[in-house]
Amino acid sequence: MKEILADTEWLRRIEGEYRRREIGSARKLLRRARCRVNVIGVCEFTSRGANRLRTAILQQLRCLPSLDYADAARAAQLRALRAKQGKALSTPDAFMAASAMRYRLRLVTADRDYSGIAGLDWSSYD
Predict the structure, then answer these.
(1) Which residues pair with 63 in a beta bridge?
(2) Which tens digit of pLDDT belongs to each residue from 24-61?
(3) CATH classification code of 3-123
């Protein structure tokens, strides 16, 4: 079974599929993969307000251990590398990439900012 790390944009897509009562590609992937989330994803996903649906979605995911200094160092390296390439990478996105790389998970997202990060396995909804 595939293991993935859910990015906030992907979590929002799942939320939309539930609201529309459709089983789209995000919900199908949720059923067939071991889905993980980190504290960045939880924070971003619930920052617009926690509700029953968001809580139910998050309960289907396993939480990764908390971020640490090694994750911060890798995130900083990723941001610096992207800056040298003339491309921006936000701090939350850098931490998402660092988490995916640390745990060797595929990062599932709608965010194209991750393209070109060496060593990062990412996909647009798989």
Answers:
(1) 37
(2) 999 999 999 999 999 999 999 999 899 999 999 999 99
(3) 3.40.50.1010
Question: Residue 2 corresponds to which tokens in the numbers above?
Answer: 């595939």
Ramachandran angles phi, psi of 62, nearest 5°: -95, 140
* 65-87 per-position pLDDT tens digit: 999 999 999 999 999 999 999 99
Say which residues have a Cβ less than 8 Å from residue 32's Cβ, sequence separation at least 6: 1, 2
Q: What sign for the dihedral angle of Cα 91, 123, 2, 78?
A: negative
DSSP H or E run through 5: strand 3-6
| Residue 51 vs residues 10, 37, 39, 47, 87: alpha-carbon distances, Å | 17, 17, 17, 11, 35
Residue 46, Cα to own-chain centre: how many angstroms? 14
Sorted by where each begins, the domain ranges of the chain are 3-123
β-pairing verdict for 34-37 and 62-63: parallel
